[in-house]
Amino acid sequence: MKFDLLKTSPKSAARRGRLHTAHGVIETPIFMPVGTVGSVKAIRPDLLKTELNAQIILGNTFHLYLRPGHKQIEQLGGLHKFMNWPGPILTDSGGFQVFSLAALRKMSEDGVTFKSPIDGSTHHITPEYSTQIQHSLDATITMAFDECTPYPATHEVARTSMELSMRWAARSRAAFIAREGYGQFGIQQGSLYEDLRRESTKKLTDIGFEGYAIGGLAVGEPSDQLHEAIPMAASMLPEDKPRYLMGVGYPSDIIKAVMAGVDMFDCVLPTRNARNGTVFTCEGTIKIGNAAHKLADIPLDPKCTCHTCKTYSRAYLHHLHKEDEILGHMLLTHHNLHFYLQLTQTLRDAIESDTLEQVAKQLLESYR
Amino acid sequence: MKFDLLKTSPKSAARRGRLHTAHGVIETPIFMPVGTVGSVKAIRPDLLKTELNAQIILGNTFHLYLRPGHKQIEQLGGLHKFMNWPGPILTDSGGFQVFSLAALRKMSEDGVTFKSPIDGSTHHITPEYSTQIQHSLDATITMAFDECTPYPATHEVARTSMELSMRWAARSRAAFIAREGYGQFGIQQGSLYEDLRRESTKKLTDIGFEGYAIGGLAVGEPSDQLHEAIPMAASMLPEDKPRYLMGVGYPSDIIKAVMAGVDMFDCVLPTRNARNGTVFTCEGTIKIGNAAHKLADIPLDPKCTCHTCKTYSRAYLHHLHKEDEILGHMLLTHHNLHFYLQLTQTLRDAIESDTLEQVAKQLLESYR
């Protein structure tokens, strides 16, 4: 899995890159829509490609393992074929969701034992097993199995957690079956502590991965701490490999993280917020259910070129939202994903034309 | 609104027609997808046209009157513009839904008073008001306001109800504002009684409408009575105007009704059943949630050419159904609507090529 660093920004750490995979080329920086259970909610995968130009999507190993099961997906030809998304797919390791189960799980050096929230059955996931599951799913990019250190964490807790994750990273790597155009990313941990992030990075690069993720951020820390931590964490990672900031975030977070040198993002915000009626626009977010939109014969976003904005009024989308019509979820999802994908396109263009600082400043001001 | 009778079937009462409207041409026989509240559930209206070749859709006056309100839709340019469906729209009169309210409504010679199921507010709908509402919605085809006679009904009850509906039909017609390419349909009533249906037809044709509907069928009577009543009711209607059988039905019902000389159909079955996981195929209906489909790497319908069947396995659709994913509703809706629209296309072709009897026999046998 080859990564070309095409250009670096003269006044920031931002990078314009290109990742070559078995399932296609990814232009970075890029946002990855989340397809939790083998479906990016409320949008057809063919239109995700043809109308929104999505380049890579994310699948959730934990959910797909529980239902329909990775062995079933393997038997049916892998996740790409199963869900009709021939492009690249990144799967998380399942760790984050397992740890979210709280009372339902138990951790050991070996791995995590948990009860299925679906049927109460007991499961045991190890770094090796997580890696095998992702192999069965045919993930283009496999993530190492790690513990997402909760926030806040003392230095000691953060160290213990990070060191376990690094031992698991080595085991994940040993279990990874290399294939042309496929890759595995290691995940940097260490909470907000620079020395721990540095140690984590050293351990990961000693193992060697095709890319590196920043884990354990956007887990509850205040925004200013998040935006101090991102450049600190990103700047340590190897220059010649893609850098992925997991689970982030709002459009403004993505802009700042791109300027800190991050290449890849995923977040449920555009899709989940669409289903709640919260819409991202160039002038900030709007709640389509607000009475102000009841008679508004204008598009969601005056500058947007997506199918929803070219075709429908806020009044119609307000009506669909009030009626809880599926079409409302579809059209708002379409717009919000377009907004995120267009944002990364704009940032890529700005890096190429050396205008990132001005573009970022304008965008950040307009979102207020 | 001009109706061309292009061809009649030599061995049945089936007809191949063409209805010219202000919003486009409708080739008959035709199925009309139902867009209750200004949205055919779970499908984008542009794809309804480009991928499914829908020619006309139905809107529900009662629902749109309550939310968002016909005046609002008028202010926003009419239902076509509001929902991005530039093609023909037929609106029902609201009568059927009002009468479904049972305890919440009260009927008089003047009209129906009812309490809104949304907020309990009181409303009074008359034939004149229903016609005005449909005008505000910019309906291509307006339906006369009538009482759908419940089943079973004694001859006396059916007569009283039919006669009221006919007085209302005259008032609906008087309130109708004629415009080029727009039309209004009268609705034949009379329960299962031939003499009443004949009287009703006489009264309607004396008034004169651009088309005639068969009302009060498929309201609970056994299937054999329905299929005795359809040819009886259809055969009385004028030859030179389109005939619309309201709210019918299963694919086999539509085939039989086409052979009885019906031109237009609407029904919520394809869309509602899709959301319940019930799928129409050339071999009969299947329940996609059944365990038998869990590993089935075959399309829903082996003979179907729709996007869903060309692209997805039953196994994937089973998975989406189990997860209650919106995409599952979208893909099954797409298939079921394609099935109904393709059925009427097949019947149109068969009438043209004088093969309707053989085609109908084959289809009816394969659905068993």
Overall pLDDT of chain A: 97
Intertermini distance of chain A = 39 Å
Briefly note the structural class of the backbone of chain A.
alpha/beta
Total discrete domains of chain A: 2
Described by the principal axes of the CA atoms, the overall outline of chain A is globular
Main β-sheet of chain A, in a few words? Answer: 9 strands, parallel
Q: Any descriptors?
A:
TIM Barrel, 15 helices, globular, three-stranded antiparallel sheet, nine-stranded parallel sheet, 368 residues, homodimer, alpha/beta
Describe the structure concisely for a colleague:
The structure is a homodimer of 368-residue chains. Chain A is α/β, with parallel strands linked by helices.
Structure characterization notes:
Two copies of one chain form a homodimer. Chain A is of the alpha/beta class and 368 residues long. Chain A has two domains: 2-267, TIM Barrel (Alpha-Beta Barrel); 268-368, no CATH class. Chain A is built from 15 helices and 17 strands. In chain A, a hairpin with a 6-residue loop joins strand 9 (112-115) and strand 10 (122-125). The radius of gyration of chain A is 20 Å and the shape is globular. The two termini of chain A are 39 Å apart. In chain A, 57% of the residues are buried. The model of chain A has no long low-confidence stretch (mean pLDDT 97). The A-B interface holds A 37-44, 46, 67-68, 72, 75-77, 82-84, 294-295, 297, 307, 311-313, 315-316, 318-320, 322-323, 325-331 and B 37-44, 46, 67-68, 72, 75-77, 82-84, 294-295, 297, 307, 311-313, 315-316, 318-320, 322-323, 325-331.
